[in-house]
Amino acid sequence: AVVVVGSFNVDHVWRCDALPAPGATIAGQYHTGPGGKGFNQAIAAARGGAATTFLCALGEDAGGAMARELARQDGLTLNAEASDQPTGTGGIYVDSRGRNTIVIGAGANAALSVGFIEAQHALLASASVLLAQLESPMDTVEAALASARNAGVTTVLNAAPANAPTSISLLKLADILTPNETEFASLLARHVGERLEPDDVAATDGSTLHQLCRQLLPAGTVVITLGAVGAFVSHAEDQLRGDTQPYYRIAAEQAQTIDTTGAGDAFNGALVASLAHAPSAAFAQHVRFANRFAARSTEAEGAAASMPRLTPEG
Ligand code: ADP
User: Fold this and answer.
1) In this structure, are residues 212 and 192 in contact, taking their beta carbons and an 8 Å threshold?
2) How do beta strands 29-35 and 9-15 pair?
3) Is any atom of ligand 1 closer than 6 Å to the C-beta of 233?
4) What superfamily would CATH give domain 2-306?
5) Which of 158, 183, 260, 297 to mutate to test the pocket of ligand 1 (most atoms within 8 A of CB)?
6) ipTM summary value
7) What is the 292 CA–ligand 1 centroid distance (Å)?
8) CA 126 / ligand 1 centre spacing (Å)
């Protein structure tokens, strides 16, 4: 089974011709729907075939009710800490060129407590894989990773968003770290003292990337997602996870892409679903499934809504 710890947001989206300037009042087409990296990844894991529990914090409001109803529809078990804060929200403007401006109201997500996570110890210990991101308080994420690690559960940390504060002690609790190019560049700047532009990551040669990954997470696996290029994998030399090579790239799958929102969330959810399904399979097989699942997710609009129903068996 999979446990995902993280955020749920109600996203409010306005499509407008141009992003509003300060002081302006403009018209836009509105829609609303679920968001939050944690929720998107939990939905992906569930649709990827894993028995999945999502640990989060919700307000006692319409947003919280939306989370419970959507989880129910996807067979996702939701274990929510009740918060006196409002359920998390995102305010998103998207212009005609697809550029966006986003404000997040963390609300209840910022109140997800260490105590609540510690009370879930038996659930965490019974899982095969734990997946967390950085849209929850750092001490809560750290408590979840530590609890899983102590129980021998495989820990996966999606180090997103890129501007989240991270510590080496937090990173070390991850067996598998899954940054995108921007997040990888920011982790390198912060923890390795190396400058690499996000746009240059995909074109950097494998042995150089591998050396950087080894400095960032000496004892674990780093998977860098490279958008339409695919993914780069780097293992610790004594911990190849069933692979024959310590580092390699796996090309993305072809897709009729219309919206890449949530592609990284799709990749992470699918990766843990595959790990839970076949723990002793070669790691490359999990990455191929995650690429396939994420490519399919770009063929529909939205984040959680665009997750395909696609399991490792096919
Ligand atoms: P994020 O959404 O965090 O920016 P990426 O852009 O790196 O993450 O995308 C995550 C994964 O989604 C990639 O590793 C790849 O498997 C898949 N993906 C993203 N964009 C495309 C695309 N245009 N075509 C096919 N697969 C894609």
Assistant:
1) yes
2) antiparallel
3) no
4) Ribokinase (3.40.1190.20)
5) 260
6) 0.99
7) 10
8) 31
Cα of 260 to ligand 1 centre, how many Å?
7
Positive or negative CA dihedral for 300, 301, 303, 306?
negative
- What tokens appear for 60 in the block? 């006692």
Which pTM value belongs to this model? Answer: 0.97
Residue pointed to by tokens 């310590």:
246
CA distance 234 to 246: 6
Active site residue 200: no
Enumerate the domain spans of the chain.
2-306
Residue nearest to ligand 1 atom 2, measured at CA: 264
Which residues in 9-87 belong to E strands, given as ranges?
Answer: 9-15, 29-35, 52-59, 77-83
At 40, phi and psi to the nearest 5?
A: -55, -45
Express each pLDDT in 76-111 by its tens digit.
Answer: 999 999 999 999 999 999 999 888 899 999 999 999
Report how far residue 295's alpha carbon sits from residue 12's, in angstroms, rounded to the nearest whole number: 25
Interatomic CA distance for residues 240 and 81, integer angstroms: 37
**Closest protein CA for atom 13 of ligand 1:** 227
The set of long-range contacts for 167-174, using a CB threshold of 8 Å and a minimum separation of 24, is 167/138, 169/142, 170/138, 170/141, 170/142, 170/145, 171/216, 171/217, 172/217, 172/219, 172/220, 173/142, 173/145, 173/146, 173/149, 174/145, 174/217, 174/220
